[in-house]
Amino acid sequence: MDSLLLEPTLYTIKGMAILDNDGNRILAKYYNPSTFPTAKEQRAFEKNLFNKTHRANAEIIMLDGLTCVYKSNVDLFFYVMGSSHENELILMSVLQCLFDSVNQILRKNVEKRNVMENLDIVMLAMDEICDGGIILEADPISVMQRVAVRTDDIPLGEQTVAQVFQTAKEQLKWSLLK
Amino acid sequence: MAFKRDKKEEEDGGGNIFLNLEKTSVLQEARTFNETPVNPRKCTIILSKILYLINQGEQLGTTEATETFFAMTKLFQSRDVILRRMVYLGIKELSSLAEDVIIVTSSLTKDMTGKEDLYRAAAIRALCSITDGSMLQAIERYMKQAIVDRNAAVSSAALVSSLHMTRIAGDVVKRWVNEAQEALISDNVMVQYHALGVLYHIRKSDRLAVTKLVTKLTRSPLKSPFAVCLLIRIVCKLLEEEGDVALSESPLFDFVEKCLRHKSETVIYEAAHAVVNLRRTTPRELAPAVSVLQLFCSSPKPALRFAAVRTLNKVAMSHPAAVTACNLDLENLISDSNRSIATLAITTLLKTGAESSVDRLMKQISTFVSEISDEFKVVVVQAIRALCLKFPRKHGVLMNFLSAMLRDEGGLEYKASIADTIISIIEENPDAKETGLAHLCEFIEDCEHTSLAVRILHLLGKEGPRTKQPSRYIRFIYNRVILESAVVRCAAVAAMAQFGASCPDLLPNILVLLARCQMDCDDETRDRATFYYHILSGDQPQFIYHYIVDHLQVSIPSLERALTQYVANPTPEQFDISTVPVSAPEPTNVPEKGHGTVDIANPVAVQPETPAKAAESYAVKLASIPELAPLPGSLFRSSDPVQLTESETEYVVKCIKHCFSDHLILQFNILNTLSDTLLESIGVTLEEPEGYEILKEVACPKLSCGETGSVYVLLKFPEDLSLSVSTFGATLKFVVKDCDPTTGEPDTDEGYHDTYMLEDLDVLLSDQVVRVMKGNWGAAWEQAEGESFFELEDTYVLTSVTSLEQAIQNIVVFLGMQPAERTDRLPQGKSAHTLLLAGMFRGGHDVLVRAKLALAEGVTMQITVRAPSQEIAELITSALG
């Protein structure tokens, strides 16, 4: 039974994925080369995972020797995978962080279309949450600070006066430097 | 309306630039990167597309990747934050695919030491992904600074990256231990967590340092819940290595227990999980953990409920009584919307509940068994197996349930586990045999898994002839011959032959059926049918016994190797099968343990290496040592490693005894645990007892810290068999050199000689005997009555044992032979028992033992041995004396 005691290591996360409501991959990352080494195996796993999870909103499932926690919103499914002995609550806090970060990046409109439009920022956020299987940050506020959300995307009406002022100043500075 | 249409158009992909991307055109677009000035918007989008493609599983060739990579380096000109960050991501993605990635080192180093905080952390991580061992020296100074940086992101990034880099340059990273230590007292929770991870990784081979680290940290509470979880795991590892002190006395365990009252649920659960999984946990330590888990069972969060019930399920396997307190909470979870939770709850209840609740629970499961995943169905099946062993009287209900499950849809693994369960029930419980076989017969009528059908046919052949009405199985078997694929037909023919061999009144009918099978279109089936037909019609009982009832005893991997060798080096001699080592049957599971600890947490359990495979790998390893060549014949048996030192001494020595037909090779595995010494020319001095003769010794040239090396000694067994069971004194001798613990280089060239006393090594009878599985022991016993066998009988009183179980266990271990006909399982409440054993003595001599045991003031035993020579028989009877 001693194998069930967890090896003290920082490598906690086996994978993270965001799928759409047909089970297609939007973004997915697997951190351990031994879990699903080829793209084909990854696809098969995602298909299977999606089939098992898209109907029942049950938050957690064990599949292919992995503990997978998940969360869905409108037409998106967020997954975080860890080893079958991993502390489920740690995985949950990573999932929560992933979801909250995306939620803030997309200004509470968590939909596939918005993810695609802000794919660069979502990629950066995933990279800030987990680096090679190690949880880098699990606090969505810090993640947001670190991905440096672009401000000029927001329609003018939704920006604060300070933001507008800041942008204007930047632009002026740049034009002067040229 | 207009709005709706807009929306529709958008969904069709109008707005999605990532739809239908094509690799070549996207890589074409990457040329835009070369334009000056850089257009950040455009380039970010193109870069996103490239990364998206890679993420979708698109493969880039080396040239493509390298070209893209170099184009990407142009983007360093732009100062757009997002673009720069995307470039880092790109570098990380392409670093393993492209060539000459170190070209960006200086750009990244600049970013990492620059003023822009948003660059620094990410630049470090990108830099480390392109750095190799030789380059690391150049950036070492910056890394050290970064680890202790005030910016948490930078510090975390540096720590995490250094952990990644221990894989390529462990020694360099080890030098950063002081910086990591400083980071440990950071205010930021994540930095603390990462620092602990790095520190532990650097020090994990140094037990003392780890203990020191842990003692310090358990006193001053860490802020990060993740760090506390990690600390709990480190503590548990120390506890497991601690030896056999009671847990409650260990200060380390106090810490784990205190964590059960932590404010973070994550930590509480981690602590409870740890307590449950510690090997030395007793019910006393379990109680607080279980009550915490009980609380979690009613949490609104599914993940927490799942975690709790899964851990309780684990507890139920080892300490069912501890979980009974939670039965009420578990009952509530049966109807949980998450099917995994419900399944775990039910299986836990099945383990803890009383016989009366079985029917009700089974009914509950059957309502949703079709909805759960195969992996959990396997869990249910295993719970049922455990139940059958616990409540043999309930086999009717359970067996019906299993056969219903067999009829459902399901994968091979799931079906196999059901079949396994039925088979084990049949073996454990003679009452269930007929119904079980009937269910299996029905199953193979409609079974799409060839391997399972073959297994069941084999079982029918073995068990069928010994039932009350063997004839009823013939129809099922013969149906297979008509309907199935070639492999199944073969198995069916073999099964029928078993009936023919064991049931004389069925023989004429079987012969008719076999004759029909001789017309089969498959070669193998036809051959088998012809073979069996002639043996069975030949009226030669010893042939029937040798070729049908008894099966091949050799180990298959060894046979394969021997045959390949034979084919590769053609000789005029015939292939001699007696030179192939005999394989011991796989250790049968002791019911209490084997089935009880079915690993629910990990349904895809890892198969341990089978003994046959282990023996084969030893044989290959020994053959590869030039000093020992030529080996004295083929390897007969290898013992399990025997510890010759305490486990926590300077040198850990284990011995494996390899037995050949007239020779013995002792393999001493030596582990040097001293970090500041280097051992050279290591040997083992043996005080060989009378009769033994040392032929060769192979020393181990060099061992640095943490390495394991082997010393071999080749001995000849004494002519007089009675001397072969004896004891060796052993001493380790070697030359010690002091060395630098970090580099492993010796300080001086001169060392000094030293010796180290080892514990005595016993060569036992069981080292010279291989277990042999006799399908039909009685038949073998009768065969051995002839003139070529000696029979010896003796009576002993075993005063030291108080129960028959204990006596049986001792005898089996002592003789190292295989119990046949399941006589090692004692029917309850009997005071006399007959144990039947079969084995093979080195040199390929079959040995059969019958031990009649009676319980009275200790155990009285009458032992009868049949062996091909008087000496062997004497040796065996005397071994028990």
From TrEMBL, chain A:
One of its GO terms (cellular component) is Golgi membrane. Keywords: Cytoplasm, Cytoplasmic vesicle, ER-Golgi transport, Golgi apparatus, Membrane, Protein transport, Transport. It holds the Pfam family Clat_adaptor_s. The keyword Manganese does not apply. InterPro entries: AP_mu_sigma_su, Coatomer_zeta, Longin-like_dom_sf. It is a peripheral membrane protein. It is found in: Cytoplasm; Golgi apparatus membrane; Cytoplasmic vesicle, COPI-coated vesicle membrane. One of its GO terms (biological process) is retrograde vesicle-mediated transport, Golgi to endoplasmic reticulum. Residues 13-150 form the AP complex mu/sigma subunit domain. The coatomer is a cytosolic protein complex that binds to dilysine motifs and reversibly associates with Golgi non-clathrin-coated vesicles, which further mediate biosynthetic protein transport from the ER, via the Golgi up to the trans Golgi network. Coatomer complex is required for budding from Golgi membranes, and is essential for the retrograde Golgi-to-ER transport of dilysine-tagged proteins. The zeta subunit may be involved in regulating the coat assembly and, hence, the rate of biosynthetic protein transport due to its association-dissociation properties with the coatomer complex. Oligomeric complex that consists of at least the alpha, beta, beta', gamma, delta, epsilon and zeta subunits. Belongs to the adaptor complexes small subunit family. This is Coatomer subunit zeta.
From TrEMBL, chain B:
Residues 617-763 form the Coatomer gamma subunit appendage Ig-like subdomain domain. InterPro entries: ARM-like, ARM-type_fold, Clathrin/coatomer_adapt-like_N, Clathrin_app_Ig-like_sf, Coatomer/calthrin_app_sub_C, Coatomer_g_Cpla, Coatomer_gsu, Coatomer_gsu_app_Ig-like_dom. The keyword Repeat applies. GO terms for cellular component: COPI vesicle coat; endoplasmic reticulum; endoplasmic reticulum-Golgi intermediate compartment; Golgi membrane. GO terms for molecular function: structural molecule activity. Residues 23-538 form the Clathrin/coatomer adaptor adaptin-like N-terminal domain. It is a peripheral membrane protein. Residues 766-879 form the Coatomer subunit gamma C-terminal domain. GO terms for biological process: endoplasmic reticulum to Golgi vesicle-mediated transport; intra-Golgi vesicle-mediated transport; intracellular protein transport; organelle transport along microtubule; protein secretion. Keywords: Cytoplasm, Cytoplasmic vesicle, ER-Golgi transport, Golgi apparatus, Membrane, Protein transport, Repeat, Transport. The coatomer is a cytosolic protein complex that binds to dilysine motifs and reversibly associates with Golgi non-clathrin-coated vesicles, which further mediate biosynthetic protein transport from the ER, via the Golgi up to the trans Golgi network. Coatomer complex is required for budding from Golgi membranes, and is essential for the retrograde Golgi-to-ER transport of dilysine-tagged proteins. Belongs to the COPG family. This is Coatomer subunit gamma.
